[in-house]
Queue: 4 jobs
Job 1
Amino acid sequence: MNEQVRPVMLEQVSQAAKQPKPPLLSRRYALEIRQQLAWHWQAVIIGLALLLGLGISAAILVAAGVPAGELLNEFVVLTVFDAQSLKAVLFQASPMILVGLAGCMAFRAKFWNLGLEGQMIWGAIGATAISLFEVGPPALRLPLMLAAAISCGLAWALAPVVLKLRLKVNEIISTLMLNYLAINFLLHLLYGSWKDPRSSFPYSPQFQPFERLPELFDGISAAVPLAVVVALLALWFLGISRAGLYLRFVDANPRVAGAVGVPVQKMIIGTVLISGAMAGIAGFLVTAGQEGRLTQSFYQGYGFSGILIAFLARNNPVAALVVALLMAMLFVAGRSLQVFYQIPFSMVQLIQAILVICVASSDFFIRHRIRRVQGGES
Amino acid sequence: MSNLNAIQLSGVSKSFDGFMALSQADFTARWGEVHALLGENGAGKSSLMNIAAGLYAPESGSLLINDNAVRLSGPRDASRYHIGMVHQHFKLVKPFTVAENIQLALPEGPGNHAFSGSHRQRLAALEQRISDKAAELGFSIDPRKITESLSVAEQQRVEILKVLLAGARILILDEPTAVLTDGEAERLLETVRAFARQGAAVILVTHKMSDVKRFADRVTVMRGGRTIQTLDPQTVSVPELVRLTVGESAPASEYQPAIPGEVRLQVRDLRSTGAGGQGVLNGVNLSLRAGEIYGIAGVGGNGQSELANVLMGLPEPCDGTLELTGFGDLRRASAEQRRELRIAAIPADRYGAALAGELSVAENFGVGQVHSGRYGSFFRLRRKRLEAEAAEAVAGFDVQGVRSLKQKAALLSGGNAQKLVIAREFSRDPQLVLVHSPSRGLDVRATAAVHARLRAAREAGAAVLVISEDLDEVLALADRIGVMSGGRIVAEFDRPADRQAIGSAMVSHDEPGHAEPVAEGASHE
Amino acid sequence: MDMIANWLGNTPDFAVPFALAALGLILTERAGVLALGAEGQMLVGALAAIGAQLAYGSHGVSLLLAMGAAAVVSLLFALMVLVLRINQVIAGLALVFFCQGLTGLLGTLLDWTNKPVKGLAAVELWPLSELPLLGKLFVQNPLVFMTPLIVLAVVWFLTRTTTGLRLRAVGENPQAADAAGISVLGYRLVAILAGAALIGLAGGYISLLSTKLWIADMTGGRGWIAVALVIFARWSPWKALAGALLFGCIEALIPQLAAAGVRLPQYFVLMTPYAVTLAVMIWVASGKYSTGNQPGALGIPFIREERR
């Protein structure tokens, strides 16, 4: 053995060992993943996150020129307690519910459907085509428009999901690109062959009265019950039918799902198509309900809203109903802010993003526990 | 060999999410010695060494380097104290060259700062150092080769060079010979022994008796997270070492002899290649007979997981066939068909392959039968019936901790989760039962319950296969035992089986069919 | 032939934002962080550049502020992804929508919308600018000529410096990097900031030097196309530059064809970049074109995982 090497080596190591470590580094924090947190605690954490998000949004609104006292007034009082506003909220809520459900559906199949706007557009195009080409007798016109909207929205979602399953093409990019294609096609139609000859604006000719969603009692549009019906169907699909259980397995653990006999591919494709169909219906609702014609920017804001609703509602259809209603309130309030305080509508988008960020951040506290770990002290 | 302690771990405890990996473990290595750390999988050897190398932080206990108390804040810190660890799973960046990988690990210092001198120049100088060091150690390596293109043995040499060039004087090697051929292993161990003779401390984490006997100056045996004994390998026989490592035989429970019937499943020549040679199947052949439990014993990492995946129909690319009597090649069956054929599969990874943790107990129980219409049509899932049958099964299979059938499956303790899986799989009175590590993470009572179920299945005439790294379990359950090593069955034993013979077969590298009982006192090559 | 000369001359103007954005994405993604927030960071850079120009009138300052603003916004992303370990896809999407809302809001509130600014004078690279057909290629604003240099700098950094080596290690195998003592989170943070700065510069180019004003949502999906471009380019800066030139050619062709009197449906022509992106994604995924080179640990959050 090399006697000369040993003392030198020992010396080196002893030197290193004798240097004191600064106390800050002597403790380590370990990030532990929690197994489970009781749902009421989860709700508390998410609630706190939402409050934080709303607080930040309020601060921004005040900085943008809305008097603080007016905020509560605008957002809560006027939107809910004023009959006129309430109708507007319900009306706005209908397409919101649909895109929210569409988002929920797609996410349950672990599919990022960012193409909600494109699917809405195609739904609206389909419905408008029925109107423009006068397909079917007047009595059937509206149902045909609805059917067309469903088919077109569904078809526009087919390519991304098949591409994902067969070729593993990232669906975020594919659905977004399809959005842009749809938007441009819409403009092509509206500035081209579908343009209303009586005006210079880029929209289609007005729908005939029987081609519009009627108003039911007390001024509430038929869009509302339609949205509710779709929501109930979604509830049936997810909660009562056999497919719902399959989908839950696919969402929770695709590997286990495959191993226990769930038809994973069929479930994913079917669910995404349903998502597209719902977005198509949303397009129909806005076009045949609110606008009464095909316009160039009716879809704006719905894409992200749908995703946000699904995210906040944790893909639960009942929660999505509630969140969609709140989102509709936000939209209506946003419009009135635009009118009275000249705050641009992108404020709404900002608030939505802040809420998403806060809720997403809260997930950290749900999933992790921070533990202090000693570093080898005797 | 000196009498000075290089590194000393005392009273170290560590748990992971409730599981005690280490319980007051002690370990000491001296300068100039090769010290083997011996134990089975799960004994705690790797965890203990990961603490020594700064990757884990212990919950209690102390670490002394050269008799100075030290707290490690991370791997960089350990490197400062001249501790270097070569891990079982190499920490190499595959697309980088050898020199680049080593460059990563070198500490910042004069001449190595990010912006002083050109990177190319430093790499070139490093390449020279690498070649020199390698020559010193007796092998050659091209520092410019891409790491991915190197053989496993060569990659391991890169890991060793990495820690040596970073100045390691306390060298920890975690299962280094597991991925090497006998010849390569020999050379490696000779190299590290020479390094120790130069004054360094070398710690060899291993489960191989032959390595211990031939190269270690001292050996410490660990079992169940505890240090059992430290001794001189020259003064102890291999059987004695085996006994210390695997423990005393558990008292045998009542045993009824098996009445094996026809062959249910014939496994023919399963072969697959993985990256780097680990976990490869090298021609597995075995037959499962009705009314018999066939146990596969062996140290983990010899292909058991891959075999289990193939048998259970999980995705696992390989060649070979599984002939199911009366059906054909089982590999062609869908999950639906497997259920029709009454094949029960209980995988090792409960929450990765058997249960969806986020879903309820009832749902996890019933999902297998849903497609057949047992619980309602497509339009309406008859939850009441599902829950009723789930409740029955939960009671019948003694799944505890179920306050409500709607609660998440993830909340069940390991034992109860396993019972739930068994409840589901056994609900159709299986003819073939495939089980992998059934009592992993289970306490004694749960283990007994699971074993009772498996025996009951055997009594009912099913063919049962149990793959387990727990030799006690295999000995308790199996009518026939196959020892798996190196990706194939190297020996088969009938009950009553000689524990020592099995233990030896598990750790040997003998040719298949030549597992010999080891005589007292003989050294085992 | 004049048309071709003009077309080539206009190509760099369209190609530069793609190239810069792709570079920024490459830096971030090579460190293992999936950067889907590019569209948002581009918008922030675009707005900041216009705002700074309206306030200070100096192009250099404006572009620097564009880079800075995007980097500041990316701190939010870094917080979400590195500290809170939020799913990188969600964090990226949230960032995009946040930036879209923020820029839309500020653009209107601060009255920066639709206010034209002066661009940078073109620089002639004589004598190359006298070449027939290719001449116009060498009469561009200074940032165009700087772009290949920036690409070179990024390539040099990644392949010829130790820091670059460490960054790549962090992206390929963070466990190995961590065991080697490299601060995974530290490197990722710097990668996110640097990447965002380049993406902000791309946005600043679009608003300040190309269009010379600000309109809400003016990047029109270019950030997303850049994300696809990086996949197409297999995370290699030179290939990304080539891809950016390709897209630049396509985009530059559109006005040229119109000017030449070729009658194509306007909106179909506008669809081209998106359709090409989709086609490229499909081609890449169909396997005839290996996506080897994807940073090994892309998109996976890093915790020094203590497993059994």
Job 2
Amino acid sequence: MIHVQFKHRYKIAALLVLILQLLFATGCWDLLELNKRAIVVGLGFDSSPNEDKILISAQIVDPSNIKTPQTAGGGDGQPYWIATNESTTVFEGMRAMTHVSSRKLFFPHNQIIIFGEDLAKKGIKDYLDLLMRDYEFRETNWIIVSEGKAQDILDTKTRVNNISAFFIRDLITERKFSSQAMAINIKDLARKITSKSTAPIASYIYLENTGQEKRLNLSRTAVFDNNMNMVGTLNNYESRGLLWVLGEVKSGIIVVESPNGKGNYSLEILKVKSKIIPEFKDGKPTITVRVKESSNLGETSCLEDLTKPEAWELMDSLQNEAIHQEISIALDKAQELKADIFGFGEAFHKKYPRLWNEMEPNWQEIFSSLEVNIIVESKVGNPGVIIKKVFSEKGD
Amino acid sequence: MKLENQRISSNQLFYLVFAFLLGSTVMFLPGAMAGSNAWLAMLLGTLEGFIFLAIYNSLADRHPGKNLIEINILVFGSFLGKALSWLYMTYFLYISAQVLRTFAAFFAIKMTSTPLIVFLITPLLVSAFAVRSGLEVLARYSQIILMTVIFLFFLDSILLAKDMDISNFLPFMDIPINKMLLSIQSVAALPFGLTVVFLMIINLVSNPSETGSFMKKSFLFGGILLMLYTLRTTAVLGSYATISTYPAIATVRIINIGEIFTRLEILLSVVFLSLGFVKGSIFYYSAVLGVSQLLKMRSYRPLVFPIGALLLNISLSLYDEYIYDTIDTNMLFPFYSMIFALFLPLLTLIAAKIKKIGCKQEDGVDA
């Protein structure tokens, strides 16, 4: 018995020693210490005065300057630092940052990747590869094009969230409340590029000078051709036109003017469904876009009697027209740019794989003169918590 | 004289084969090169796998209580039978080395300064201990790990639900027919054709009459789960899956629920590691068992470490660059593996039928 117990104890002791050894077995070649890494949250790429070189700027979090309520007031430095470097390839430039940054750059927490418009117009094809190939970048990074230099965007002082990369990331997630800006992450961009016919798009951001301060504004949409050269931008309404077709409108306000010119209706978008139907009519490819939408009456300055059904039918038809209008201006712009941002080519590819092989080589030309039917069915539903108008027409 | 005294139940065989089929397959998704038609490649590949299974099952049914080597010797005579068996053993050793290398390559992507041999030795040592402790240990292990894998699969899928896009399954059949056939063949070869290794241990199942039906069951369930993985990957990634090295990992990397549920790929890496371990160990075990049987040893245990050392060396010298592995798994393996997965077993079966060896009434004579 004693012998057995001894053996048992010996086993436990051996196990403990083994477990203790795990503490030292954490690896020694690829060890990664948090305090030896510079955490990058935003990246910017700009064209450089030197031909065939690019200017890379990385926004690095500076933990010593992050203000908490307890430490507020101490030091007025920014919570980030922008490290910049000029190089021929992206990877080289990022590694060369170790000449100017005491810590090696660490990208898994990167949120946004901004390309300056100058560089975007020259083409960003060569700079995307690393972002997709390297393990440290996540497929969920947002791709953005900036008016002016990307470096300036990253270096803008932002309120509420004082690291601009996080601020911009939040702008992207909150854009769903207006649905007037496009957003795309690395994965979706790669999908658009691999589809060959679809023109890639990206968010667009610019600095706005209000007089008192400079602030960031994320709206509009940057449009690329299939070689990743930027060819143009869509304005806010065209952007929403694009999102209607893609079925990505989540919410937003449609303002329609009353036909008698007396005031506006502001309609809040609630639910959207869209469908792209490719067809051949007399051997000619055509597209039908079907959009179904329902909305609420959010605000009105009209003096119609809202208790009458006619008033609501009028709103429905006005809304149909407004959505139709947004889609068709987006379509006109896209056809003018010869950029199939809607993925109509992909729709043909999916439905008519064999015929598509013949269409693919000259798809750009086909697209620029493609016949598109837009069918919008929309409904204004809920009037809000008051049914009747507040003001009557007595004042007139 | 039995080399292995442990017996596994038919249920344990089911789990073992199930885990084996998922193996490293969940990581690469062999049908992925068929793009939007990956699911079709997976389906047809699974059906082809059932043809292999029918051959293995009828071989096992004709020779109850015998493993591959004994069947070979019985059918082809002592010399040819042994020669064939040695061929099988080299093949098993080679596959085991490849599975090991696949692990190492996966970790080497991120950890570039760690010598490759570290990634090879670590799983190999664990594997050696598993092999030393016998088949039942592996069977029990795969039972536990499968539960975790299935749970994680459904968890990931729920978190990915909002990123799925059904239209990614279109266009239907737009890829050239030879590419489609290649995808089907690689699905059939990669997880299903490899199950030929179970002929080595099929005589260790305590209830031989049930093995056939339990193998079928694990093929069915394994096929279904692989199919679900494929469907999910295509639905989430679309055409991106065709350019990705590890499509399944890329899928899970997409998960982002409120900036909290992110970076879940580590879970899939664990799945990959623990399932691949089963696969590699079974090949290792079969090679060790077979070699000691061919050398008429009393126990297989003295061979575990020598063969492990051999395995390590094969694994190290398999290829210099990753691209050779890709070319191998995508273009060559689906075909040369057929020698062992299809032709040799089929040949044995035909020869056994012609020579009328192993028919039911002759059981008493053969035993």
Job 3
Amino acid sequence: MATYAYILLVLPLIAFAVQMFFGKRLPRGGDFVSIVAVLLTMAIALAMLAIMFVLYNPSFTLEHTFQWIDIGEFQVSLGLYLDNVTLIMLFVVALISSVVHVYSIGYMEGDPGYHRYFGFLSLFTFSMNGLVLSSGFFSIFIFWELVGLSSYLLIGFWYEKDSASDAGKKAFLVNRIGDVGMLIGIMLIWSVIGSFNFQHIFHAVENEALHGSLLSIAGIMVFMGAIGKSAQFPLHVWLPDAMEGPTPVSALIHAATMVAAGVYMTVRIFPILTVDAQLVIAYVGGFTALFAATIAVTQNDIKRVLAYSTVSQLGYMIMALGVGHYVAGFFHLVTHASFKALLFLGSGSVIHAMHHGLHKTGKDDLDPQDMRNMGGLRRKMPVTYVTFLIATLAISGIPFTSGFISKDAILSGSLAFALVNPQHFLLPVFGFGAAVLTAFYMFRQVFMTFHGKPVHEEAYSHVHESPQTMLVPLGILAMFSVFVFYVFPSINPFSSHGWFEALVIKPGSVAGERAAEMAENFEHALHGAHLPAMITSLVVASIGILLAYLFYLRKSLSADRWAKKLQPLYKLSFNKYYMDEIYDSGIVQPFLRACKSLAIFDMDWYDKIIIDGFAYVTRAISRVSRWVDDKIVDGLIVNGIGKIVLFTGSLVRIFQTGRLQQYLMMMLFGIIIIFAFLVF
Amino acid sequence: MNHLLVYLIIGAILFVLGLFTVISRRNAIAVLMGVELILNAANINFVAFAKFSSATLDGHIFGIFVIILAAAEAAVALAIVLNIYNNFRTINVDEASSLRG
Amino acid sequence: MLGQIIFYVFAGITVLSAGVVAFSRKLVYSVFALLFTFFGVAGLYVFLEADFLAAVQLLIYVGGVLVLLLFGIMLTNRVADINISQGNTNRIVGGIASLGMLGITLYILFDTPWNTIGEKVMPETVSTIGELLMTRWLLPFEAASVLLLAALIGAAMLARRSGEGEGA
């Protein structure tokens, strides 16, 4: 099993390498390399899933680690950790990734960066798989960053567009902010426990190695990474901008998998979350769910609506984990992956057709993504319409869909939590409020796009259904949005019992007695809260759909008039509560100003005084050295020797008169002296 | 006249006088004259020894040779002096100091 | 008795003339004093029973060398040059050196035990000398003749050059 996992992990990486180096030269841009790799990955994931069904063991775990760094006291082990959650997640990633790969053949046809696109997709698949398989914080962080990198590369895929490259940078930077918190949390855990491995950490926490407020802080800090990655408030600002990337990318990364990585990580560290940490998580998730839903209501860009919807749904998942409904949170992650990806791919199909239509009629200045330019598309694009509708039903929580079961579970979880801890009544308010709005804006989207009269008749006449490569994935995902797949052997559409609940069990908390106690109380309340929650969710969903119907289909209520009536609210919602502007003026601009002043410090003061000062000192020293060289070495020693030689020479020259007589005289003197020596 | 030493002394005096002439006279021809004096002194020595210390006439032969050489040398030297005179217009040995250091 | 006096007269002439040669300011005086020196030396030769040598001395020195010197003086006579007084340094230092030399020589002369062989009969000089020249001293004789030839040619060439008036 472990070997399969490693193969699964490595295949997309190889595809990425091949694509990047040889992609341009291969026929068809080498897309088949990535597609084959991802389909093989899917096959392996399917096989592993099959094994899971055969074993049908809720406590199935498999861990395989190896020592990566071993330097004295510092040891890091890497490896993989498989349990049912991992296997299901692997399958989800593989499914959505393969679907998106196939869809992209049609969608990205003719794009000049075709080979690069598939290379990045493979890189993402590899990174996501690595994240899912991680056995400890160290490797999860590595893949966390890799996933962030893939996201950056893919958001800014059309890098010639300023808005796209800016969006990529924004995504990466905002993620980074979350990662700071995550790193602090990881380091905190490591400094106390000394290991990165999840299982070791769980055991250590169980043994009270890390407890109390320090454990809470560690948990919250690590969760900050999830806030960044899963676009929770206040780090949600990057996700709407990430829609600049190609639509299949949005489907894969920003709907189904990468943003779910935050949720997945929270799932992984669930056992060490203290009560306080869980509360923080729950409120963050709940608030985000409602907050994003309020923004989605007024958006006109088809992808923006879906982006805020994603933020909202992620909020649901996080809230579920926060209140302690582990299974529901993960369940919603899995179901949401299918129908959100389907929504995005469907919108991609619509955009593709709209673009074609507008282009043909020469109205290129109109935005093909603006829903106000659409209308009545269901007649022209039936398959797209049907699949889109199924997904919308799922997200709104209508029975017979997978989304109904998972959303229902979350809402009952929040209700149960409030019942046990009445002071946290806001959580179900958040949940049900978001449910109303979700149903409203999703059906608003459907009615505006597919129903009614087309806004631009001419463009409308040129619109046609998308090619097979784009429709088949839609069909597959629609299939997975039906409830059956998640609850068999039971076929009750209203019940969440089935293999999923059987195999995915909530791990016991090791974060102290209070947490365990809370979990126990929660479980008891859950049974009682189930029915009321289901009824309430059906009611609110119906209200939402009804409102959407009235506003946008029957047009008995005018959306514009109501928008004017609620002008301030409308403006707040439409401008996403001015969050980007607040960040810009509050954080970005002051930071840039600080940077500028530092630059001035560096250039004017440091450079001039210190650097130039050094130069001045060096020159002064060299002048002194020169003086020494000139006067002392040259003057005294070198010239001195010369002068001595000349002087001696001039002395000796006296004897060299050139006159023979004087030579003779000197000879005589010599003889006399010698004689004198000899005799005396 | 019967004493070797007298002749030797005379020779010595002649030699020294000739030496002084060579050293201290500025005219080239005067220097030559000093050289002649020296040679003559040497000759006297030879002959004196031939008379008083030798049974043969070798001293006389030497004397003859010395005279021959003196003559030859005087001739050549004078030719040189005349050459110098014609070229430099002076025979002052102090002027002939081209080889000075 | 007489012999002694005459001997001392000759010795005196020789030495005094040599003195004149050395110390005279006028060149012509020096030349003529040299003449007298040669005569004196010849006389001394006679006293040393070297009659042949005396004759040769007179012939060659007086008749040859002296004449040559006189010619040289006459050819290079410039009134301004010759009678300029000697440099003092040369004279004084030269005088000291010469006196030193004299001292050394006299010291040697008086210190060395000369090997005299007393009275002996000198053989007949001319024939003996001639005989010696041809037998024992043949090589030097021939060498001397070659040398004389060389001197002859050399002097002639030098004189010829100066005669043609070529530059230095």
Job 4
Amino acid sequence: MGVEPWERDVLAKEEMQLTTDAVEAATDDHIYFSKEASSGGRGFGGGGCGCN
Amino acid sequence: MSNKDCNRSIAAALTAATCTLLGTSAVEPVQAQEEPGWDFNTALLYYGEDNDRVQDLSLNILSRRVFVDDRYLSLGLTVDALTGATPNGALPQSVPQTFTQPSGRRTYTTTPGEFPIDDTFRDSRVAVTAAWEQPLGRLFAINIGASASSEFDYTHLGLNAKISRDFNKRNTTVSAGLAFAQDELDPVGGAVMGLTQMPVAVDDDDDGDGDGRNRGPAEDKDVLDVVFGVTQVVSRNLLMQFNYSYSDSSGYLNDPYKILSVVDGTSGDPVPIAQVPGVDGPSHLYLFEHRPDSREKHSLYTQGKYYMDGKVLDLSYRYMTDDWEIDSHTVDLRLRWPLGSRSYLEPHLRFYTQTAAEFYRMSLIDGDPLPEYASADYRLGDFDAMTAGLKYGWKTSGGNDMSVRLELYQQSGNVSPDQLIGNQVGRDNYPDLNAVIFQFGYQFGK
């Protein structure tokens, strides 16, 4: 399992990062935090909002 | 060629070969470091629910300054403008229902047959974040951050830290994170006491609030989050992540604006209350909700990213369980499909399901002993949700990234027939939700 350092060409692509768009991820987390009873998972549970 | 010359030539060849492997330049080694500078990720988001419910216009800016040696400073700003209405928790009825506004000063009346919604909802929110990230030695990295936000009735302050270490030729990264937040709620009209009756509208003082009989001062809520994660490179085309999260909330966890209808045990209709001439007040018996003052959540999360001949599949799953007896499952699927070298399409599907909190109930029965906790907040009920969306992204002629996305979000409640009493059968008892999400994104300075 794993790759050698010179085999990281694909993994280094921007679209292969776990979070490709931090702002979109944050807005989605905020929407679902406001409308559902679950939050977090990918990172911290979010919050900082009186919406839930 | 002398031995000395020969050695020099071999050394130069080895240096060149090493630098090629490492992707650096032997001529300008310093230039291979990231140039210090700012990049920006911005987005304008519209979120709108049907039936004149919540509308949110949100501006988001995340800026990042890159320093030498892989050190980053991130600063974020979010400004939300919220309007609309939200279900107050009362059941719909065949006659108009009147409620006292959260301020306690006036009343509002809702249309028969429709879910009672409080349309006095207006708010704005400003949130800021700051984070610093840097390597520690060759294999460790740390990230420390702070967050703060302010709404009309809510203030948040938070700190977070995360440390990670690479193993196995950097194919495995293990991380641990900790976040603590201290929030203060200062609801319009005061923080209501749980399971007390909605009062009549009174404005007998000059402070703008109601009479304050069942209201307390501002309340606090503390949230502690812990996350442990493992990121694993499986192959040249597959990256996986596994996280365990623990979250502990304590303090005032009620939604101070949510109520429950008290209904007749036979008819299932809300119980009317006697009206005093000249006094505005609720038409029926309503009690404010009351939740436990602590909540522990556990989550397991896994994500995989798989590269398939230019296309990237992003699949994640989250399981959450808590001591309010809510269990949830979330599956999120995105497929980034390149259109030439400068643009892409990304369809997105998300499925979510949750069970109800143990104290969730649609109504309280008149004459029954009051439970310790009760809430009719639809977000604590048993429901399924689905999101379907499409994103289109492209690179501008200047090399910046733009994107637009449109998504539809739908919630559908599950109310079992044995929960229904009398006339509640056949009525719409769960406020289903349809929302549209539109976002324009622009990233520049990279």
